[in-house]
Amino acid sequence: MSKGEKYLIASVPDCNIDTQGENLINAIEMARDAISIWCVAEQDAGRALPKASDLNDVVCETGEFTTLVDADIDYYRGKLAEPTVKTEA
């Protein structure tokens, strides 16, 4: 993660995606969502998910740090299947 002008930038090299958050907790939540969406899309396209990088192999620039982010793809897929608009009976 690195600090931008207003947000923390979260890069996910295994998925080749970036996202951002207002603070550390929000940046991790946004990374979790980005990873989950990306993984669901990859699975739906029939592509294999990459193996997570070893933290010792991740290179950080000055002012950046590395952390693990969990992602429960099955849970997220279930959330995507829920209706977003509730109708009255």
Describe this structure in words.
There is one protein chain. With 89 residues, the chain is of the alpha+beta class. It has one domain. 34% of the residues lie in helices and 13% in strands. The protein contains two helices and three strands. It has a three-stranded antiparallel β-sheet, covered by helices on one side. A hairpin with a 4-residue loop joins strand 2 and strand 3. The mean pLDDT is 87.
Concise summary:
The chain is of the alpha+beta class and 89 residues long. Helices cover 34% and strands 13% of the residues.
| Strand arrangement across the biggest beta sheet | 1-2-3
**Could you tell me how far the N terminus lies from the C terminus, measured between alpha carbons in angstroms?**
46 Å
Total number of beta strands: 3
The total domain count is 1
Helix content: 25-40%
**Envelope shape:** flat
Number of helices: 2
* SSE-based structural type: alpha+beta
- What portion of residues belong to β-strands? 5-15%
Low-pLDDT stretches: none
Mean pLDDT: 87
Oligomer class: single chain
Question: H/E series, N to C?
Answer: EEEHH
The biggest sheet, with number of strands, parallel, antiparallel or mixed sense and barrel status, is: 3 strands, antiparallel
Question: Mind telling me the C-alpha Rg?
Answer: 15 Å
